## 1
Amino acid sequence: MLTGWKLSVLGIIIVGITGVIASIAGLMEPGRAASLFVLFVMFVGALELMERIKKRRITKSRTKSSKRN
């Protein structure tokens, strides 16, 4: 099963393809599709950054607790 950054990349690819198809089919203006795609990429990037920070905090707290014992 895909997790982590692989799932994010797959989501970005799917949303990008959907945006291109929607603009070609005339369902959405190309500029609007591009701006929504950029917004989605920034959102996914923020989620990945938050996950990375969370993992870093967990490892730091584990090393601090192991040093105390």
## 2
Amino acid sequence: MNSPATRPKTVPRPPSPAIRELWMQQIGQSLSANSPTKRTKAIELEESCPEARHRFLTAYKRKKIREESGLRYGEHSPGDITTRIGVSLYEDAKLYRMDLRQDVEIFEEMYGISPFNVPKMHSETRALLNDHATVLASSDYTFTARFQQAFGEFVAALKMARFPLYEYFRWNLNDDIEDEYPVLMKLRSRHWALERAFANEVRYVGG
């Protein structure tokens, strides 16, 4: 265990709801709409509607095809009709496990993991994966290559740490030696880098 003297003077903490609200206002979407209660409620409305999940995944697939055929990386298409169905990591994965979709690469690009191996994860982890999928699928947002790089590095660190269920993004206040484990330290760093990328590398361009 490390003594308090070896701890950084500035200890990162998860942002308060008010701070995250300000961050998300910068890209035009209030995070309060994705609060755990509201997110769960929205998912429950779509659980019995695979067609809605198909529409969400297909929206990204069509957007990707348009970009590859001429639009710039992350470009907003004024003529695009964005589906506002909402995201659901677990519900979208079910479509592949039930053999209702075969384009596995689309799911992996949006969520960063395979639909056939979706582990239990902390709610903050799931929220980041869902938010990334939202940015990619919706033409209401533009994003930079740095945003995608930050997401890739976060997912790689997440897989290396085997999707911890506890609050890995916090400094352990009990001086637990596990807090200094290199794999967890790297994951914590990648988590906050992705949070900053959402704030600085994503822009809302919708109406």
